[in-house]
Specification:
- By secondary structure, this protein is an alpha/beta fold.
- The protein has two domains: 45-361, Glycosidases (TIM Barrel), CATH 3.20.20.80; 371-498, Jelly Rolls.
- It has helices spanning 2-30, 45-53, 63-67, 88-97, 137-148, 169-184, 221-231, 275-280, 314-324, 345-361, and strands spanning 55-59, 102-108, 151-156, 191-193, 200-202, 209-211, 236-239, 245-247, 262-263, 287-288, 291-296, 329-334, 371-374, 398-399, 407-426, 434-443, 446-453, 460-479, 484-491.
- It has an eight-stranded parallel beta barrel, surrounded by five helices. Strands 13, 14, 15, 16, 17, 18 and 19 form a seven-stranded antiparallel sheet that branches.
- It is elongated and about 115 Å long.
- The N and C termini lie far apart (92 Å).
- It binds beta-L-fucopyranose.
- Beta-L-fucopyranose binds next to loops.
Amino acid sequence: MGQYKIYIVVARKIFFTVSVLLVISFVSCSREVDPPAPVMPVPSPRQLAWQHLEFYAFTHFTVNTFTDKEWGYGDESPKVFNPSDLDCGQWARVIKAAGMKGIIVTAKHHDGFCLWPSKYTEHSVKNSPWKDGKGDVLKDLSEACKAEGLKFGVYLSPWDRNSALYGTPEYITYYRNQLKEILSNYGPVFEVWFDGANGGTGYYGGAREKRTIDRKTYYDWPDTRKIVRELQPDAVMFSDAGPDVRWVGNERGIAGETNWSMINKDEFAPGVAKTDVLNHGLENGRDWVPAECDVSIRPGWFYHKSQDDKVKSVNQLVDIYMKSIGRNGSFLLNVPPDRTGRINEHDVQRLKEFRKALDEIFARNLAAGKRVSADSWRGKSDTYAPANLTDGKEDTYWCNDDDVKQGVLTIDLDKRQEVNLVLLQEYIPLGQRVKKFRVEVLADGNWQEVASGTTIGYKRILHFTPVRTDKIRITIEDARACPLINNVEIYKAPEKYFEL
Ligand code: FUL
């Protein structure tokens, strides 16, 4: 009997110990693992919202459209502005159908002509024959954008070749008054575009001379920017120096293969910047100022009939898409309305074809919902598991422990099939990190490298020669801190769109 009791005591002890061990292991498995600390700098909420837009339009439209020029001197009569059938609704519908998310219009280009009836100048639509001087392009366009669910943005050239005040301190008040007009009267503005072309020859109220200004100090940018923050707190400001979005350094719409979203913005001013730094960003830049890639669908920014047969081809546009959005930039495509005041049929047709191409390229994400394995992940916690890479969610990511700057991710496509495109995204709210990566596929029993790169950022797209495989391996080779990958997509895109 005594022996029986001992058995019971021993059994109880074993049961107790096993239970304690089970509870400990359960608690440690389900314990919350802290997310990685941000790697500074990081995007502001307005920059993050802007980054998600990816693709939006520029509409260069003013007196130049009617004088066949690229830069008006400022002496053109407002009477030349006379579109026969101005239809901002058509602009918005065409641009929306192309998949673009907003429109930035040249409210005022270098010639100083205002597309709205500004109180501060006679050089505007109010002295044009269009609608007997009662028209307002900004009103029409902002309403059309609203109706189509598009964002509305404005370009207000700091350089004004018409104004007699240009070059004097009074011009800054004039410029700011105009900025206030366009930011107060047309609803929400998503982007304010400060061009870098500043100073030179012009009409200047009849003086017809050259006026040079100090690009760094003349505009007192810090105080001018305050007006934007106050009147449109959600708008991003674009210029060579940001502060929110930077020029990519060329007007071909092409970001550097290495493209960091950071620069040191205080070193630049609109019109004063190093194009190489703008194109690539700086790995250790102090400020988050991502690149915007601007380019026109035609050789010129304004409409010229002589360029009707020079509209970029679908494949050229696909190439720019891959080198802008596909290289951690945004794509700002200029589509200039013609003299009727509508987007010209040549461009309308090309945008339709381009949209069709993009829809075919990104028709089916072969990685969606597929199994992913990783060599390791943060604390082995579900929160950071590799499955996050293919779950289609924007706020989940795979990441490693703090001291691990590499990672190997393998996506199982279930069956062998042809692939030729990979899309990668970092989780940028905690900073841009990846410095070097490669992509391999398992073909004929061997891992073959198909693509490699440096930065990823918000989005990176790589096209490679089609290959049949059922497994894709992405190796993060180096990063500024433990990498955070939010999304992987794989496609078999029609090869015909990549031939140039
Ligand atoms: C440049 C301007 O001089 C061009 O006319 C155009 O507006 C382009 C987008 O920016 O600096």
